[in-house]
Design a protein that fits this description.
mainly beta, 5-stranded antiparallel sheet, elongated
């Protein structure tokens, strides 16, 4: 079996706060509150304004593509933790 290469980005778990909304009438006590979210993925973009995680990546013959991605504004991010990933034997 040969080992598949690991993605060229760190794999992370991000805790972040998401907005909440509702489109109808409600009493103040019933208004939605922001949600505490946890997302894991490959950290493919990391800049001063936001990070982008990808859940899936593909690379072959110099082509690199990502899928299932989410960009999270820095102002919403709580901790970011690295997760160790092992090479897969296939």
């Amino acid at each position: 079996m040969k080992s598949k290469p690991i993605a060229p980005w760190p794999f992370v778990e991000v805790r972040w706060i998401d907005s909440a909304t509702s489109g109808g009438w409600a009493e103040i006590k019933d208004l939605p509150k922001p949600a505490d979210m946890i997302t894991r993925g490959w950290l493919v973009v990391d800049n001063d304004d936001y990070i982008t995680l990808a859940g899936t990546y593909y690379h072959d013959d110099g082509i690199v593509q990502v899928g299932e991605f989410i960009s999270i504004p820095r102002v919403s991010i709580l901790p970011v933790n690295n997760i160790k990933v092992r090479k897969l034997k296939i």
